[in-house]
């Protein structure tokens, strides 16, 4: 299938992009890497009147480390993030998770911010952002604001971004003694997972970010609290039943998904030892 | 309609195109570069793989207007330059293609692997790198063999 | 001929020649139908039914006609004036019924995806834009999704005029089956389910039709396996003479049986070209491919096996039910698959008592018909699944029970209880070779040792037979104009090079290459000096094309015979030029030689020069004829059966239900191997399609008849990351029917791979006494069985 017709504009600045977004409202869509949007356009599942291309904005690029905070520009491609020395050193969870994101040709175009802003519940990065306690940088007509990851993913393909806001980057706090783990169960290499876990242990807190478990990526608070308090792994597995929504889909029933989530939790946290 | 200027296989191109045209259709229908194939148009099969500014991409998941100012290389370009002659020879010698419809995308993806392969790359690494390119004919083993043969030959000085 | 002797002169048969076409294809220089553009060409897009079953109450085409770029918009009524309907029945499949099918639905739609209206526009995008503006009103009717429900009393009738939803039913009964089961020491019983899947060739279906009003000729480029059959079909339904139609099959991007059927949208494209007097191209997009390409399988089989305490099989009792969608496919019908299932069950084994029923039901789902290894995976999975269950029940090794029951290699010729005639097979030799190849005993020891550590691995074995080289028994006797014979024309050109034109076709299998090898050896010329032309009804002799693993065995033999005839003509001419007796001459190395001394007498290039440019120097009465045509069809046996055996080795994660494929082996006997590399790659590709069926592929339908996973993101095909390496070996039992002795190999891989995988999964699960009989074996199915302990093998003493 061929996409329905639309207009296209590539503004030179972030400010111009926000102005266009404000002016055109819901008829406009942002495009960066386009790796989720283009399939939707080609399948005519989405038919915006205007695409605003922010893929080349320098303001959205760059990966930096300052004040024990890693900043990832929203426009960085998965390939750039995955191979960046700062990411590999300070956020190896992200590098590991990106290895499971689709395939090289997709990772060459798809962007870090695009994946977060798309808020696909089956995507790896939202769960990573939750587990890493990331902070989203948004910019709109009223200026910049910061949104904690835990408040960002609001519903299926929905975020806390206002319709005229652009996700510009993500801050990830760096903790030197972090333990982390990542696992997903996908039928084939690069497929969306049936269930997946991004887990981070920091002094005094453990975060378990789950994907492909419901309408959004979620943090499993009860299971994490059990682990944070030093409780046994099996108690955390039990607690998952309260954390994860009952979500059936053609690949797995809710009961099977809970079972698989527990398997992943045992494997990931079990590998940390001491439980 | 939007005007774009880009370099395709080393040739400067200027064209006026509708915004909705994806890069693979632009290459095929406007430039006659029919070696770039379409298998699904939703980014899954890999038949439309081309290089954009040096990186492999799905031609159906890039708008032609997004390639404005960029450098595009297709199977025709890398064939004529001789860049992948050894790989193509290995494909033919090993019968790593049957109908040949996936092959241009497979060759470009395999070349991407070969250009960036770590020293310890093995068959599993080849399989993983090619795991987003669908081939219905071969069952993949001959393709993996051909890429492995080329990898080993290029490693030998 | 002794093709096993590698020292014979001009040896080509048996060499692993690389395919010359592969070089062009690897450079993206193939020419596929979707690559071809003609002046004034318009693009077709179809509006398809969103309902599985509905009455069309109104169609308004007007809004679409005013859209930019639109040339024409047609509905079923308009199309019915251009193209007559067809009915997919064959007279030898007694009782098979179907209803007239039109290019575009008339009055009623019967599956989600059925074409309802067609837009022709300057670009495909514009055609799609306009299709969105066609207004169709539907009055939904009850969907008929499940095959068993379709046959239940009171089921909604898909074609009321047919009286019921039963398209076809066939029974086989050798007699005394009940007595045999009563006398059996054990009865093994299981209910097998095989999901619907589909071919997913990477190049979607594509057709470019060009009616030239001035010339009164229709030229059709089409990705098809059967150009001559399509020529006949177009003539018949468009009211043209066959001589007005040329069908060209350029490079075809995969087919596997998908591109052998008559599709309503393709008929509409050809009819529209005639209406518009200009070229019309249609390339199915992937979404419409999933709901309009032929689907495959979709069987439930209730199966019983009678067996004695010593492991001797005494009988099979089979009840197969399949759903084929709303029409029997044209012109091959959708009854052949079920027919083959019951023909082939038990095929590798010696047993006396057989009762089988096959029922074929209409449904409101996409049409089901022939796809690679028609019926074979069902028959093999049922047979081999029962045998493994019997071995497990009796506590004997899967190899031992097969050894006991496989037809002895010295028992041929013989006839199976279902009436299949076997010329010569090699089940025991294949089994022996397999055990060596996979080091069976060591693998079993490794499996046992890993089980101690909680690692669950399984070995699955599946013997099989494959129907190849079919004669007219398949279709011709049923009244279809589907040729079982094929022809080859060979000519020596003015440069002394050989040109082969043959009616079998190429979709990447290597047909072109093996015909060149055969021609080169039969003629005594270099491989590089042979050019092969296929896939053009204006150019090649008339023939059936490529299907049912027949191109090498039938087209290859025709090529051999034509080459030998041309040799005789050349030697006659050479004898005249050389003043020699032709019996003293031979051809080798591209030259006429002295038969005794092997010394060169005259090159073929020089002979051609004289023949074409200096005929004045030839003796009076000698006219050089450097072209010969031969046709061939096997007559002794209706089919040349091949046989083989496969084994799978895999690991099962009992926590997740995920399977890791570790290794796969195939030992196969296709008679004379013309090109071992190409044969092996046919088998590998076929195995992986079988693995797809075993683990991944299914067309998911909901209760409303909507296909839920009609995209490549949701319909899972096998990809490189999960497939195993496959080791292949051959036993060679040539057929005595032909000079070459080649039988088919194209479907052997698919025939038994899913059975081997399923048996391996059940072997891995055997310590838990769980057995699954439904494919694909998804993690969900495996986990459900693990958690409930269901799916245990049905066996009673």
Task: Summarize it.
Chain A is of the alpha+beta class and 275 residues long.
Describe it:
The complex is a heterotrimer of chains A (275), B (157) and C (797). With 275 residues, chain A is α+β, with helices and mostly antiparallel strands. Chain A has twelve helices and 14 strands. Chain A folds into three domains: 7-53, Uridine Diphospho-n-acetylenolpyruvylglucosamine Reductase, domain 2, CATH 3.30.43; 58-173, Uridine Diphospho-n-acetylenolpyruvylglucosamine Reductase, domain 3, CATH 3.30.465.10; 179-270, CO dehydrogenase flavoprotein, C-terminal domain (Enolase-like, domain 1), CATH 3.30.390. Chain A has helices spanning 14-24, 37-42, 78-83, 85-90, 92-99, 104-107, 112-118, 124-131, 149-152, 221-228, 233-243, 254-270; strands at 7-9, 28-31, 50-53, 63-66, 69-73, 135-140, 143-148, 153-155, 158-159, 166-173, 179-185, 195-202, 205-211, 218-219. In chain A, helix 10 packs antiparallel against helix 11 (233-243) and helix 11 packs antiparallel against helix 12 (254-270). The model of chain A has no long low-confidence stretch (mean pLDDT 96). In chain B, strands 2-1-5-3-4 form a five-stranded mixed β-sheet. Chain B is α+β, with helices and mostly antiparallel strands and 157 residues long. Chain C folds into three domains: 20-30 and 485-632, Aldehyde Oxidoreductase, domain 4, CATH 3.30.365; 33-141 and 204-252 and 258-292, Aldehyde Oxidoreductase, domain 3 (Alpha-Beta Complex), CATH 3.90.1170.50; 295-472 and 636-790, 2-Layer Sandwich (Aldehyde Oxidoreductase, domain 4), CATH 3.30.365. Chain C is built from 20 helices and 30 strands. Chain C has a seven-stranded mixed β-sheet with strand order 3-5-1-12-9-10-11, with helices on both faces. In chain C, strands 7, 8, 13, 14, 15, 29 and 30 form a seven-stranded mixed β-sheet that branches. In chain C, 63% of the residues are buried. Classes of the chains: A alpha+beta (275), B alpha+beta (157), C alpha+beta (797). Chains in contact: A-B, A-C, B-C. Chains B and C meet through helix 2, helix 3, helix 4, helix 5 and helix 6 of B and helix 1 and helix 18 of C.
């Amino acid at each position: 299938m061929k996409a329905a017709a639309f207009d296209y504009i590539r503004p030179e600045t972030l400010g111009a992009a926000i102005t266009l977004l404000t002016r055109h409202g819901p008829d406009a869509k942002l495009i960066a890497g386009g790796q989720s949007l283009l399939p939707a356009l080609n399948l005519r599942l989405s038919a915006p009147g205007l695409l605003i291309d922010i893929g080349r904005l320098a303001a959205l690029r760059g990966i930096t480390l300052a004040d024990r905070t890693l900043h990832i520009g929203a426009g960085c491609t998965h390939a750039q993030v995955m191979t960046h020395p700062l990411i590999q050193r300070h956020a190896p969870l992200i590098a590991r998770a990106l290895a499971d994101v689709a395939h090289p040709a997709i990772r060459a175009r798809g962007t870090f911010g695009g994946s977060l802003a798309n808020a696909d519940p089956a995507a790896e990065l939202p769960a990573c952002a939750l587990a890493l306690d990331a902070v989203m940088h948004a910019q709109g007509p009223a200026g910049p604001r910061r949104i904690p990851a835990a408040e960002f993913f609001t519903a299926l393909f929905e975020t806390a971004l206002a319709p005229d806001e652009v996700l510009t980057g993500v801050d990830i706090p760096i903790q030197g003694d972090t333990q982390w783990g990542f696992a997903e169960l996908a039928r084939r290499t690069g497929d969306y997972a049936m269930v997946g876990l991004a887990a981070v242990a920091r002094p005094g807190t453990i975060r378990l970010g789950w994907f492909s478990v419901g309408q959004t990526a979620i943090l499993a608070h009860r299971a994490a609290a059990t682990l944070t308090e030093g409780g046994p792994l099996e108690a955390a597995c039990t607690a998952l039943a309260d954390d994860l929504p009952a979500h059936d889909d053609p690949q797995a029933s809710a009961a099977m998904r809970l079972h698989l989530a527990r398997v992943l939790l045992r494997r990931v946290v079990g590998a940390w030892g001491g439980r | 309609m939007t005007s774009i200027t880009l370099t395709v296989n080393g040739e400067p191109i200027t064209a006026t195109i509708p915004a909705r045209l994806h890069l693979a259709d632009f290459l095929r229908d406007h430039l006659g570069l029919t070696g770039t194939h379409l298998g699904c148009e939703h980014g899954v099969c890999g038949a439309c793989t081309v290089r954009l500014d040096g990186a492999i991409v799905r031609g159906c998941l890039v708008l032609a207007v997004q390639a404005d100012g960029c450098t595009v290389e297709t199977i025709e370009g890398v064939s004529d330059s001789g860049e992948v002659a050894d790989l193509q020879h290995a494909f033919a010698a090993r019968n790593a293609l049957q109908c040949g419809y996936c092959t241009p995308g497979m060759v470009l993806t395999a070349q991407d692997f070969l250009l960036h392969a770590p020293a310890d790359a093995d068959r599993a690494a080849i399989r993983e790198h090619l795991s987003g390119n669908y081939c219905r004919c071969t069952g993949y083993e001959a393709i993996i063999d051909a890429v492995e043969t080329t990898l080993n030959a290029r490693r030998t000085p | 001929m002794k093709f096993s002797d590698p020292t014979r002169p001009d040896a080509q048969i048996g060499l692993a020649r690389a395919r010359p076409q592969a070089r062009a294809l690897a450079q993206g220089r193939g020419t596929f139908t979707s690559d071809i553009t003609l002046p004034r060409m318009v693009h077709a897009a179809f509006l398809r039914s969103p309902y599985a079953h509905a009455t069309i109450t109104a169609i308004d085409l007007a809004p679409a006609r005013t859209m930019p770029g639109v040339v024409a918009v047609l509905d079923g009524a308009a199309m019915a004036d251009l193209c007559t309907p067809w009915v997919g029945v064959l007279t030898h499949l007694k009782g098979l019924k179907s209803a007239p099918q039109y290019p575009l639905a008339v009055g009623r739609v019967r599956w989600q995806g059925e074409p309802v209206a067609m837009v022709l526009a300057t670009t495909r995008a514009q055609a799609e834009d306009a299709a969105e503006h066609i207004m169709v009103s539907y009055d939904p009717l009850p969907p008929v999704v499940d095959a068993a429900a379709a046959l239940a009393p009171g089921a909604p009738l898909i074609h009321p005029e047919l009286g019921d939803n039963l398209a076809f039913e066939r029974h086989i009964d050798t007699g005394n089956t009940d007595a045999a089961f009563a006398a059996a020491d054990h009865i093994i019983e299981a209910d097998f389910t095989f999901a619907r899947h589909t071919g997913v060739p990477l190049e979607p279906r594509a057709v470019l039709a060009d009616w030239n009003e001035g010339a009164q000729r229709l030229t059709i480029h089409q990705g098809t396996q059967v150009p001559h059959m399509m020529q006949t079909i177009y003539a018949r339904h468009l009211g043209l003479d066959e001589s007005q139609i040329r069908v060209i099959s350029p490079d075809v991007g995969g087919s596997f049986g998908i591109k052998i059927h008559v599709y309503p949208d393709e008929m509409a494209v050809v009819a529209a070209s005639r209406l518009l007097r200009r070229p019309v191209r249609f390339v199915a997009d992937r979404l419409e491919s999933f709901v309009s390409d032929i689907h495959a399988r979709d069987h439930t089989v209730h199966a019983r096996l009678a067996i004695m305490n010593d492991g001797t099989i005494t009988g099979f009792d089979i009840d197969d039910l399949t759903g084929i969608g709303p029409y029997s496919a044209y012109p091959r019908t959708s009854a052949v698959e079920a027919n083959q299932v019951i023909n082939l069950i038990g095929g590798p084994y010696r047993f006396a008592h057989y009762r089988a029923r096959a029922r074929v039901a209409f449904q409101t789902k996409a049409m089901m018909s022939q796809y690679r290894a028609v019926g074979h995976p069902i028959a093999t999975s049922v047979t081999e699944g029962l045998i493994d269950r019997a071995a497990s029940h009796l506590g004997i090794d899967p190899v031992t029970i097969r050894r006991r029951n496989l037809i002895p290699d010295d028992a041929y010729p013989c006839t199976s209880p279902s009436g299949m005639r076997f010329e010569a097979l090699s089940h025991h030799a294949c089994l022996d070779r397999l055990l060596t190849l996979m080091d069976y005993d060591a693998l079993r020891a490794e499996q046992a040792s890993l089980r101690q550590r909680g690692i669950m691995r399984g070995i699955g074995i599946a013997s099989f037979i494959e129907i190849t080289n079919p004669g007219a028994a398949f279709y011709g006797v049923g009244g279809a104009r589907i040729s079982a014979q094929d022809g080859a024309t060979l000519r020596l050109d003015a440069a002394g090079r050989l040109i082969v034109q043959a009616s079998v076709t190429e979709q990447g299998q290597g047909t072109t290459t093996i015909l060149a090898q055969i021609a080169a050896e039969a003629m005594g010329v270099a491989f590089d000096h042979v050019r092969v032309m296929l896939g053009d009804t204006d150019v090649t002799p008339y023939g059936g094309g490529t299907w049912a693993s027949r191109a090498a065995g039938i087209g290859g033999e025709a090529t051999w015979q034509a080459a030998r005839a041309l040799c005789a003509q050349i030697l006659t001419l050479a004898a005249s030029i050389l003043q020699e007796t032709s019996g003293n001459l031979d051809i080798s190395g591209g030259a006429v030689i002295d038969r005794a001394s092997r010394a060169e007498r005259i090159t073929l290039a020089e002979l051609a020069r004289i023949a074409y440019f200096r005929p004045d120097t030839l003796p009076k009465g000698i006219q050089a004829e450097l072209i010969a045509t031969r046709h061939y069809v096997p007559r002794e046996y209706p089919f040349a059966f091949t046989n083989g055996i496969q084994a799978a080795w895999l690991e099962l994660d009992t926590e997740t239900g995920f399977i890791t494929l570790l290794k796969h082996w195939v030992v196969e006997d296709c008679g004379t191997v013309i090109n071992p590399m190409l044969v092996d790659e046919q088998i590998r590709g076929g195995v992986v399609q079988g693995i797809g069926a075993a683990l991944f592929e299914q067309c998911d339908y909901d209760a409303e008849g909507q296909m839920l996973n009609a995209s490549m993101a949701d319909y899972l095909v096998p990809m490189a990351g999960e497939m195993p390496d496959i080791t292949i070996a051959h036993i060679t039992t040539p057929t005595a029917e032909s000079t070459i002795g080649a039988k088919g190999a194209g479907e052997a891989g698919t025939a038994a791979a899913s059975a081997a995988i399923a048996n391996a999964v059940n072997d891995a699960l055997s310590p838990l006494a769980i057995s699954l009989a439904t494919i694909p074996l998804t993690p969900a199915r495996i986990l459900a069985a693990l958690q409930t302990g269901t799916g245990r093998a049905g066996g009673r003493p």
